[in-house]
Known about the structure:
heterodimer; A: 18% strand; disordered N terminus; B: two-stranded antiparallel ribbon
Amino acid sequence: MPKSASTSKITRRTALAGLSAGAALLAMPRIGRAADETIRIGFPTPLTGPFAAEARDQVKCAELAVKLVNDKGGIGGRKVELLVRDDKLNAGEAATRTLELIEKDKVHAVVGALSSAVQLAVNEVTRARGVIYVSISQSDTINEAKDFSKYTFHEALNPHMTTAAVARQTLKKGMKVAHLVADYAYGHEMLRGFKRAQAAIGADNVGEILHPFGAADYSTFMPRLMSMRPDVLCISNFGRDQANAIKQAVDFGVKQQMKIVVPVILHNQRLAVGPEVFEGVVGGANYYWGLEGQSKSAAAFNAAFKAANGGAIPTDYGAYGYSGVGSLLAAMQTAGGTDTDKVVDALEKLQYDLTKGPQHYRKCDHQSVQSVLVLESKKKSAMAGDNDLFAVLANDTGSDDMLRSCSELGHAT
Amino acid sequence: MDLSLIIMQLLSGIALGAVLVITALGLTIVFGMLGVVNFAHGALFMIGAYAGLYLASLTGSFWWGLLLAPILIGAFGMLIEFVLIRRLYGRSIDDPLLLTFGLSYVLVEGVRIVFGSDGIPFPTPPQLIGVLDLGIGFFPRYRLFVIVLVAVVLLALWLTLEKTRIGLIVRAGARDPTIMQVLGVDIGRVWLAIFGLGVGLAALGGVLAGPMRSVNPEMGSLVLAEAFVVTVIGGLGSIVGAVVAGLMVGISISLVALFAPEMATIVMFALMAVVLLIRPQGLFGVRGRTA
C-alpha cells in the first residue's frame, strides 16, 4: 500500500508543521466569528428533488453575486459568506434549516426557497425572529398583508403579473381555455391569476384538472382534457412536472388540437425534453440570456456568469438568485453594514438594475417591480445554436400597474 | 360522461399498469425466490433508463437500447448478487434490505456524478411517434407498443417458468433449496440467474418508461414506491399477483383521475390499505409467509 510507505517517511519536523497547520485550520472559524467580520447570508433551496436543476442554478448565481462583492473588498471591509442548505422542497425541512441558520449560524439575512409553499414556511420563521428574507420564487400570498412583515421582500415575479402578461399574448375574447394545475400553492395561485386575466380578456373557462404535485405520469388526464376541446391548454406546474406534463400532452397529440401555454417556461426543462416537444409552447419568464442584445445589464450578467462557470449561460431561476442576493448586498452597502432596520430602509429605497433593467421594491408589500418576459420555444430548425431556445414575444416594462393594488392586498395605504 | 372517454381512460390505465407490472415483477420474483427485498430496484430502473438512452445514442437505434440495456444491467445485477447479496443469504431479512438501500444511494449519486442531476431527453423511436386514431379518440402509438411488449414479455416469462426444465428447477428451488442441492443442482447459480432476471426486468421498465418521462437520477424513487404497493396488493412473491395488481392499480389511478384527479396518487395507497385489511397476505399471497 502506498499509504504505509509515505507514513514511514514522516519526520518529526513535518509532523509538527502538519499538526500546527491543522490546529490553525480548526481555530480559524472561531476567530472569524469572534471578530464578527464576515456577513453571513443563509440560502435554503431544494438541491434534491424535482426542482433540483433550477435550485442548482440559483446557488451558482447567488455565489456569483457574493463573489463579485467580495472581489471588490466586501461590504465595509467585511467579507460575505453564503450558507447554502438543502430544504428538500419540504416546508418543515425548510423551516428547520432556516431556524438553524438563524440560531446556530447567526446569519444576518436569508435569501432563497423555490416553492411557493416552502417560501411561506421560511417567511414564518424569519419574520418571527426579525430577520430579513428575500424570497426568490413566485408567490402572490407573500405580498398579502396576512403573510407580510417589514422584513419580507419578494424578488421573484408573482403569479398575478406573470399570468397577466402571458394571457395578454396568448388569449383572445371568446377563446376556450382548459387548465392542468399542480395541486399546491403555486398551481392554485397561477390558476387564480389566469382566471382573473381570462375574465378581463373575455375568454371562456372550459374546465380545470388538478394533478398531484410531483406526478410522473399525466396520461390519465389527457383524454378528459382533449374532450373539453379547448383552444388553449394552460399547464400550471413547475420543474420536472412541467417537462413530464408537456411531453405526455404532446405524445397524446394535444398540440394538433390546441396551443400549450405555461405561466413560467423553464430553461432547464426545455433542455430536459428537447426542442421538438416544447416547440411553440409559450410562457412567461423573469430572465432569458438572449436579452443581452437589448440590455447592457443582461450582457454584463451573462459575461460574469460565463467567466465563473466555464462558459455556461445563466438561466431564469438562476437570475433570481443573482438579483435576490445582489439587491440585498447593495442595500447592505448603502446601510454600511448589517443593522436590520437600516438594511430594510435601504432596500425600500433601492433602485437596482442587475440582470435586465431597472427594478425596485414597492413600499407597501416589498414586491419587486420589474419587467416580465413572454417567450415562445423555438422550432429546432430555427435555433441558431444549442442555447438559442426561445423567441422573445414580449418584454413588458415593469410598473406598479402590473401589481394588485396595495389596498387590495390589505395593506394600509 | 360518454363511453368513449371511459374506454380511452381504461386504455391509459392499462398502459400505465403495464410499466408497473414489469417493475413490480422483478421485485416480486427476487423476493419470492431469494427472500431478498431489493430496495435498489428503483435505482436499477433508473440505471436501465440511462443505459437504454446511452446505448440507443451509441448505436443510433432505440431498439438496440431496448434489447441490450436489460441484458447489460441484468449482468450488472448478477455481479451485485455475486459480490454483495450472496454473503447475506441465511441471515435476517433486514440485512440484504439495508444493503440494497445503501446501494440505491450509491447508484443514484453515481449517475448524478456521471450524467449530472438535470433531466436528459429520451426521444421516442421515430416509428412510434404520434397518435393512432382508434375511432373513439387518439392514443399515443408508443404507449400501445408498451402494452403489447409487456404482454409478450409476460407470455415468454410464463412459458419459461411453466414449460421448460429451467423453469422447473427455478420453481423447485424456490420451494426447497436444500432438496435441490441434494439432487445435485447448483442452487447458487439459480439464485444468481434469478437476481439477474429481476434486475433486468427493472432495467426494461426503465427503458420503456424513458420516452414517456424525462430521464433523471431520481426517476426511480417514485417507481420503487409504486412497485412495492403493487407487490403488496398482489401478494409478496406472487407473479400472477404482480400482473393482476399492476393492471388494477393502473386502471384505478386512471379512472379516479377522471372523476377526482387530485386523488389520483392517493388511490393506489387506499387500494393497498383496503386489500391489507381484507387479505393481509395480498390477493395472491400465501398466508403466513415471511421470507
